[in-house]
Amino acid sequence: MLQSINQLNPDIVVITGDLTENGFSAEYDGVKMFIDRIECKNRVLVPGNHDSKNAGYLHFEDLFENRFQTRNLGNMTIVGADSSQPDIDDGHLGRENYGWIKEAFSGENFKVFALHHHLVPIPLAGRENTVLVDAGDVLDLLNKCRVNLVLCGHCHIPHVWNLNNMLVVNAGTFCSSKTRGKTTQCFNLIQAENSEKNGNGESEKIEDGGWKVRVSRVFPQGNIEFITETVM
């Protein structure tokens, strides 16, 4: 899987949490060694509920600095936010974060929001409460900010929703054995382009400043499965 990432040579790697099982220092040391093997230097990481156990969020900050961050890469803005709460599985973003998130998304870039917990329910999650406590308010905020793409983790179930032309892409598990049902280890490959080839093979901007977004899944053997494509 790590080799697949490096061969794909992505512009950015986003990791949406649960890097550890219990948030212990020794676990974080192993995680840091693993992530350092990813050749892409543009990385955004947010902690999951397991990472914040046992005050593990302190180790996260020591190794990866910010649990909340904004990155601008070319014509893309990505905001990463910590939705975890120490020793509680439920996710919560909180009104105190809405203002800076709105400000971060005030431009016209392709907008990506990354967090650990789900914004909407997904299939196969059972009765577990996986959705943010304040999911409705966060969805309203992201919709008003015209966010293009939301990246989530948490339940180890890969899934894609299209809500008001905003893709909500949930990750499976990259290397854990905790897979659900018939799912398997995988990671999401997301390609976003604001131009496409015309009949003469020349690149042209997509009408009305739109973006074509393609979502695929990459599996341990390196095989890639196309999931969906949309223009927004």
Automatic annotation (TrEMBL):
It comes from the Archaea. Belongs to the cyclic nucleotide phosphodiesterase class-III family. Keywords: Hydrolase, Iron, Metal-binding. Residues 4-158 form the Calcineurin-like phosphoesterase domain. The keyword Hydrolase applies. The keyword Iron-sulfur does not apply. SUPFAM superfamilies: Metallo-dependent phosphatases. This is Calcineurin-like phosphoesterase domain-containing protein. It comes from Methanosarcina mazei (strain ATCC BAA-159 / DSM 3647 / Goe1 / Go1 / JCM 11833 / OCM 88). One of its GO terms (molecular function) is hydrolase activity. The lineage of its organism: Archaea, Methanobacteriati, Methanobacteriota, Stenosarchaea group, Methanomicrobia.
